[in-house]
Each structure stands twice: as structure tokens, then as C-alpha cells.
Amino acid sequence: MTEKIKKKKFTFGPVPSRRLGRSLGIDFVPFKTCTYDCVYCQLGRTTNKTIDLKEYSPVDDIIDGVRTKLQGIPRPDYITLSGSGEPTLHSRVRDIIQGIKGITDIPVAVLTNGSLFWIDEVRNSVLDADLIIPSLDGGDAETFLYVNRPHQVISFDKMIRGLIELREQFDGPIWLEVFLIKGVTDGESELVKIKTWIDRIVPDVIQLNTAVRTPAEDFVDLVKQDTLEDIARFLGPRCEIIADYSKVHRLGEFKRTRDDVLDMLVLRPCSIDDISGGLDLHRNEVIKYVEELLDQKLIRKKKQGERILYHAIRNHDKRIIHNTNEHQLKGD
Ligand code: SF4
User: Fold this and answer.
1) Residue 11 belongs to some domain of the structure
2) Host domain of residue 269
3) How remote is the CA of residue 36 from the centroid of ligand 1, in Å?
4) How far is the CA of 113 from the centre of ligand 1 (A)?
5) How far is ligand 1, taken at its centre, from the CA of residue 159, in Å?
6) Tens digit of pLDDT for each residue in 71-81?
7) Which atom of ligand 1 is nearest to the CA of 32?
8) Which residue's CA is minimally distant from atom 6 of ligand 1?
9) pLDDT at position 252, please?
10) How far is Cα 229 from Cα 222, in angstroms, rounded to an integer?
11) 39 and 149 in contact (C-beta within 8 Å)?
């Protein structure tokens, strides 16, 4: 494998992340290979729902890719195991983390749905990370099935047990993400149940999110900001809101890439995959820029059969678009 392919294949970004600053993503499990099929997933429906632990990508190539990438960019704040599949499905996550730590002292974060920590091997594989960000999106089995649509082997009890055991074993910080859906998990009885489990899991931080980005299913509705603020108060001082209603962030070094995406959409309507292929960007990166451009009403989306295409809004002068919207970009 050439250096160029290694660099492109397993790393993406750095991307601007609200939580992690400049985060260099590592993606080593295939697209939508996941233990869940969350109704809110911004990547669409899961195409390979599995709990098979496998070496989905060769560890040496992943580490070489990270090493090569780091040589060509300013130091990121975090290296984040994330991407477009569930990272803990990789059977050698421990080797990946240790391999990264062998080449850099940049902290390593694991962004995971947290569904497999009831398996000793999986729990042990992440213990060398500096930060773990798992999810808890419901307070009981019924909501879990509705929201996360897990692989049939993963029960709510197993998932919760895994998170509690992870807390007992992992010395570093755990930031628990709770994704709330209007009419499903924003009611008092559901929140009381969620809080009960949070008290058992004892995360260092609780991070509330909601459907500010396009979800997999049309029926998923976002929780309004003032409601989320009430919920944050209810869950206590360790709770913060990460859902981004402001929609705009300082672009800085990322403005050029946002403009490249817009330039492409001025020329012709494109899907996320078209943009990803055309600009050689990871899907997750493309989604950030597309959502930003949608928020700024510089592009529109339309359905064409099963595909969603994005196109620049006509009668905007490209130069005006670029000049009036600089320094803004949505967070992670
Ligand atoms: S949101 Fe994450 S855990 Fe849920 S289906 Fe998408 S990739 Fe999997």
C-alpha cells in the first residue's frame, strides 16, 4: 500500500469538534457496520448490523496511516477512534490504541455506542484510552429497542451492565452522551429512568444531544433548546448540552474546505458520497460541511428516488456566498 493510500484510508480530518477541539478521526470499521441501527443516525440506516469482532482493517496499516498523517498536519487536540462504523467491533482496538501511543503523546479518545462493554474482551480493549465517550439513549428495554434498534443479542440489561463495569475498571474520564428525541425520551418518566442509570454508571460528564442533524428516520424530532436546558438542570451539574442550535462556529482553517464543498454544489447537485469521492473527504467530514451550508441556507437538499442530493441555491453569487459567511462552522 502506498503512503498516500494509507494516509487517506484510515484517517480523516482533523475536523473541528465542539467537544474535542481539533480532532483527527480514525475510521477502521466499514461504513455502517454497527451493533445498532439508531433512528437518529446521521449516516443513515445500518447496512451491516453485527456483533462479530473482527480485524476489519489491518492494525499495522492503521498505525502507519496515523503516523503519515501526523507528519503533515499541525498537532491535533485528540486522536479519535470513531468513523462510520462502531469502533469496538474491531477485534484489536487495544493494539490500535497502544500503537498510536507508541508514536505520539496526543490523547486518544474512543467515541463508541457503548453496546459491547458487557464483553470482557471489548471492555479490556479500551482501557488504555485517555477518554471514552459512550452513549445511553433510553431508560428501559422498550425505549432502547425503539431508539437504538440493537442487534438481537444485545439486551438493555447487558448494555447497562457493560457501562457500569467499564466505569469500575476504567480510571480515565467517561463522558456519557445522551441523545434525546422529542416525544420519546424527553418526558419526565423516561428521564427519571435515565437518571437512575446515570447514577449507577457515574460518568464524569453527561452530554445531551438531539437531532440537530438529518436523522436516519423522518419521524425523529429534535428537543427544543429550552427543554434541553431544563433537562440538563434535572440531571445535575455534571450535565452539559452539546446539541448545537447556534449552527455557526468559527471556521478558521476549515473555511477553505467548506468553500470547496460549496463550489462543487454550485456546479451540480451531489450526494454525500459524490462530494466525499470528488473532494477525497471522509463522509463524516462532508456531513459537517453540508449541514453547515444547509443551516446557512446556501444549499438545499432534495430527494431523488432513494438518494438525497444537495445543490447550491441559485441566484446567489458565489463570491458573495463566500464572503458573507466566513468564519462559521458547525461543531462535531
Ligand atoms: S448513531 Fe452510531 S451507534 Fe447508532 S447506528 Fe449510527 S453509527 Fe451506529
Assistant:
1) yes
2) 252-324
3) 6
4) 7
5) 15
6) 988 899 999 99
7) 7
8) 41
9) 60
10) 13
11) yes
Nearest CA to 45 out of 148, 199, 169, 175 is that of: 148
Amino acid at 280: D
Residue carrying the nine cell digits 474512543: 110
> Which ligand 1 atom is at minimum distance from the Cα of 84?
7
**How many CA atoms within 13 Å lie on the side-chain side of 235?**
30
- The reply to whether 60 and 194 lie within a common domain is yes
Q: Measured from the CA of 35, which atom of ligand 1 is nearest?
A: 8
Give pLDDT tens digits for 93-120: 999 999 999 999 999 999 999 999 999 9
What distance in Å separates the CA atoms of residue 12 and residue 24, rounded to the nearest whole number? 6
Number of domains in the chain: 2
- In 194-253 the beta strands, taken as DSSP E runs, fall at 205-210, 239-241
Same domain, 181 and 277: no
- C-alpha–C-alpha distance, residues 115 and 104, integer Å: 28
For residue 19 the three cell numbers come to 467537544
Reduced to 3 states (helix: H, G, I; strand: E, B; else coil), residue 230 is helix
Q: Measured in angstroms, how far is the CA atom of residue 71 from the centroid of ligand 1?
A: 31
pLDDT digits (tens, 9 = 90+) for 267-299: 888 988 888 888 878 888 888 888 888 888 889
Contact 65, 6 (CB under 8 A): yes
Residue 247 lies in a domain: no
Pocket of ligand 1 (CB under 6 A): 34, 36-38, 41, 43, 46, 86, 113
Q: Which of 241, 274, 293 is the last residue of a domain?
A: 241
Amino acid of residue 149:
R
Q: Which atom of ligand 1 is nearest to the CA of 43?
A: 6
Half-sphere exposure of 301 (CA within 13 A, CB side): 18
Asked if 332 and 19 count as a contact pair (C-beta separation under 8 A), the reply is: yes
Residue 37 CA to ligand 1 centre (angstroms): 6
Reduced to 3 states (helix: H, G, I; strand: E, B; else coil), residue 298 is coil
**Angle at alpha carbon of residue 159, lines to 155 and 164, rounded to 5°:** 145
Of ligand 1's listed atoms, the one at least distance from the Cα of 113 is 3
Interior/surface letters 64-92, b for 16+ CB within 10 angstroms, e for the rest: bbbbbbbeeeeebbbbbbbbbbbbbbbbb
Strand partners, 23: 15, 78
